[in-house]
Amino acid sequence: MAVSKLCPIFSVLISLLMLTSTVAAQTNSSEYCVSSNSSYARQLTLAPGLTVAFNLNGPSIDVLATIDQTVGWLGVGFAEVPGSMIPAKVIIGTAEPNTVQAYETTSRNGAGVNPATFDTVTYGAFTQVEDKAETTLSFTVSQRTVPGLESGAETYMVFAYGAGEFGYHGTNRGSVTVNLVTCEGTLTENTTYRKALLAHGILMALAWLLLTPIAIFSSAFRPIFTHFKDDTGLWWFHSHVTMNILGLMASTVGFGVSFLLVSQINFTDKHHILGLCVMIIGWIQPFNALLRPRRVTTYKQHNDAPKSVWEFYHKGVGYIGMVLAMINCKLGLDLAFASTGLFIAYGVCVGLWLVAYVTLYIKYTFYYQPFDMSVRYNEKPRTDDARSENFNQSRSGDLHENSSKSRNTASI
């Protein structure tokens, strides 16, 4: 496929990145603070599946944050700048160890999250309700902790949560501007993160769960398909190159989108580290392909040392990259708190590729005879040189050799 034909496809991939934007949605105040918990007078919906109920009790405020999934930590705080988590006073509950503690955030790195110097939490509890797939964080702090509350002005609330130990929250964060006294405010939804997360997931799944496996399979099992018709000798080559190019384009754009999901370049999570390794493998493979030794011209040259070493490296790195990428897709779903349906779809996809590989491998190994193409074409057994020539057509897929034979056939 010509490069010009791939440009429109690449443009579509780039457009996914351009779709990301930030919007703010006004929330109806009559529905904003309706509490579903009889123990609390008011309730806010900070994000889908995340609510904060609260009571204003004299000099203090009682808060109950509830999220509809089991998380390792959950934090709710009060910022000084709308839409920003820095600086802020945050109360964080963790499962391991089971504690609730107040922190102050001053920067985006770990050194900027420190135990608070303001009024401490007078009551705190962090509970994981696994049978309901629910986590709650409750605490009581002085109203002086909440900027704007005592004066009746707006308060900038923030939240974040994570799956495992307390650490970087990624896209699992948000903010809301609200008057806690009148319950009027604006829910600020940063759709940049959500759209970037969606684009990143779609592009990486397309690259590593569809395009790259097709590219690898078309090369690994090319003799199975080559013998169907005389003119299919280059089918595997075109498929291998085209699918790899499209897969690399999709994954590269997806890798670029991923930087919208982090506040700084900090490869600390397993998903981030493994993702970088996979991308390096993906970028190296095209250059490795350019170093392919000269084509095989005789049967004896098929197993010569340079070509054997190159094939071992190129194929081995390709398989390793694909397997690591599939594993990393699972880590990405874990990191994004993906729905059960996405995990099922992932398992089905990987399972189908595994079944396809085993089936084709058995057919290739036990039922196909790559060194005796004369039997496949109902010809008499011929000399080693003639047989090696037939083998070269199906195994090496050399473009010039096949094109020359097609022209000779047409002239006859």
UniProtKB/TrEMBL annotation:
Residues 163-369 form the Cytochrome b561 domain. The keyword Cell inner membrane does not apply. The keyword Transport applies. One of its GO terms (cellular component) is membrane. Residues 384-412 are annotated as: Disordered. It comes from the Eukaryota. Keywords: Electron transport, Membrane, Signal, Transmembrane, Transmembrane helix, Transport. Residues 1-25 form the signal peptide. The chain crosses the membrane at residues 197-221, 241-261, 273-291, 312-333, 339-362. It is found in: Membrane. This is Cytochrome b561 domain-containing protein. It comes from Sphaeroforma arctica JP610. The lineage of its organism: Eukaryota, Ichthyosporea, Ichthyophonida, Sphaeroforma.
